[in-house]
Fold this protein.
Amino acid sequence: MKVVIVESPAKAKTINKYLGSDYKVLASYGHVRDLPSKDGSVDPENDFEMIWQADSKSAGRIRDIADATKGADKLILATDPDREGEAISWHLLEVLEKRKALKGIPVERVVFNAITKSAVTKAMQEPREIDQELVDAYLARRALDYLVGFNLSPVLWRKLPGSRSAGRVQSVALRIICQRELEIETFQAQEYWTVEADLRAKDGTDFKARLHALDGENLKKFSLPDEKSATEALNAVKVGGYEVSSVESKPVRRNPPPPFITSTLQQEASRKLGFTAKRTMGAAQKLYEDGRITYMRTDGVNMAEEAHVAARKQIESDYGARYLPEKTRRYSSKAKNAQEAHEAIRPTDFSLRPEDYRGDGDLKKLYTLIWRRAVASQMEAAVFERTTLDFISKDKRAQLRASGQVVVFDGFIKLYTEGRDDGDDDENAEGRLPKMQEGDHADLKEAKSEQHFTQPPPRFTEASLVKRLEELGIGRPSTYASTLSTLEDRDYVRLEKKQLIPEDKGRLVTAFLENFFARYVEYDFTAQLEEQLDVISDGKLDWKAFLKDFWTQFQASIAETKELRVSDVLDALNIALGPYVFPKKDENGNPKENPRECPLCKEGELSLKLGRHGAFVGCSRYPDCKFTRPFSADAEQDGSISPDGEELGVHPDTGEPVLLKTGRFGPYVETTQAEEKPRRTSLPKGWEPQSINLERALLLLSLPREVGVHPEDGEKIVANLGRYGPYVQHLRTFANVPTVEELFDIGLNRAVTLIEDKKASRGGGRGKAEPLKELGKHPGDDEPIHVFAGRYGPYVKHGKTNATLPKDLTPETVTLEQAIELVDAKAKKPAKKKAAAKKPAAKKKAPAKKKAAPKPKT
């Protein structure tokens, strides 16, 4: 029996069918060991020794593999054909050797780029040894990321409360997003004008032309900067009497793009399908495991020879010989650090057209995209005719230009057009012009001038950020999906209408790193590290020498921050984030004389402050002046609330004013009471500050409200607004109320019903409660993982293991991967043993009294 190890159970099942009964195929379920998430897992002082650890589930899988290997004829390591796959094989080999499970058993490493019978069978006939150079590159990358994360993140925690983590690629990607946002905020729009004319040719065709030159000088973008100059130019155009001064017509060929690599697949799936990078890679993984596409983590753009043949055969069959180029198209990557050991992403069977593929949902959409791109890459070029007509006015002052493009032969665009970030795939946007010759006359129908303003650069989408990272040579395409997910999970950025928008927390972290660790968020430096890691994989650089050089400089940078005071950090951030936190213009666009002047006391200066919940803006005269506002200047302006508060009216019971204010945690209403401190209530979700009047404010200030007493025990029931929304409370039972409005008029019967329903839902134990949603199945045992609403907050449940969600995760945002980590970590913890009840100490028996010796008889 030959034992074969692959990564996933789906792949194992498929490959076992191909290989037959002489083979036993087992899954490692990805990596079997990892660096423990604690300090000391990589020891720079001990030649970068790395401590690897298997969790409880991985330990079980290792045991199964070791048991299957003992007595086997051969062990075949068939993990994925990339760096991570090579590392998994290396880990398995090390573990099995330590367990002495390989006594006399030959070990082979095989790789295949597609899970098809021919690819797997061929791979089994071409075994090799583990590529140690590729493993060294993995070890260097893993150690590097660990050293950066576990040494830089604690600095952030100490000097910048509220921040979560930093990373080698993560922090650079965040900087790119934040820099773009700053460019948008500081952008100064510039006015310019254009003049356009509607012309009619002698054959009656109407078309448009634009003023191209005036008085012998070609117009540039800002040649007409204002309405006055535009009006003068328009008057010159209206003179009319145009004739053709030149005609230029030339054919233009456009070749098809190459088949997908990892990064271009993520970009196109984002543009055309609206997929996130994570969603794209998840669907691609399933297509690969189903044997539908080749391996999806690659930066090679060429296909195998048999794929070229199959694609060309499909083109001739479906579209005819005209669409088939004379020679096979072969591509090469322009990226300087591309590793082209693997094929591009393509279908394993070109004869399986998208309309014949039975997969549903994301799988069908992504397969269609991959199939069309791969087939189109081997089709004939598209041919266009591009025509430019120049017209001169009768007084020779104004020259108009009209451009047009028409498709002469559609070629590859019959099947596929590459998407653009603006979503426009139209190849024929310019339209057709009439056939005209020099000297032909054209009538002026109408002319008009139009005002324009330059636009700020667009925010990054996932597609454009992936493209930018690839252009800069930062990170590897296979890691982009996890990098983007980390930024969102850390609340550093949010994805809104496909745009990546930096959160305040992300901007703070970026500004901190730019000021105190500038070298490690520089694009060139990060790209150079990536190049060196690729050199290691080529066997031209020792990985430990590389780490030693990096660590020496990095350790010195960390040491420089030990004496750094929080006040130094705030001074630097005030300068770096000044345009964002202290804008020079107010909401009406009027310039501010002093953007940092305290609007409350007019004497202090506004500055960033750091609290346990993150950053906010406060007055330098604290505690004499207690003015605060959110970190973002926009957050204050959105509510249209003045710093002193907005008076809504007078409280009818106390005669004190009722104020609408904004604070570090958002808008709230407040009133004072004679004998107590001010009473405050935050605005509930969905209640905008603009909608708050005295009546609504009084309702909020009436909380908590006593509804009545429970008929069974006489204990009171209270209605209130809490962290998770409106609720009613009876003793230690809290029941959600559907809407905030219901809090103010809920009756006793309704409240008792909600309370009793809540008790019943957990009456037979928490497991009987209905789950909020199912996240998916645990890869270890195929059992589902659910999210529940618990008494002490939401939690995830797998089997008998319950794990509470941390504060930064909600039932709506938690992912299957995060849930698996939580339940696995909880499962590792030993159950707390209940202390045995101490038995009462046995009472000591009083010593028996000695009987007096009998007196001798006399």
About this structure: Residues 301 and 787 are 42 Å apart (CA to CA). Residues 423-429, 635-640, 834-858 have pLDDT under 50 and may be disordered.
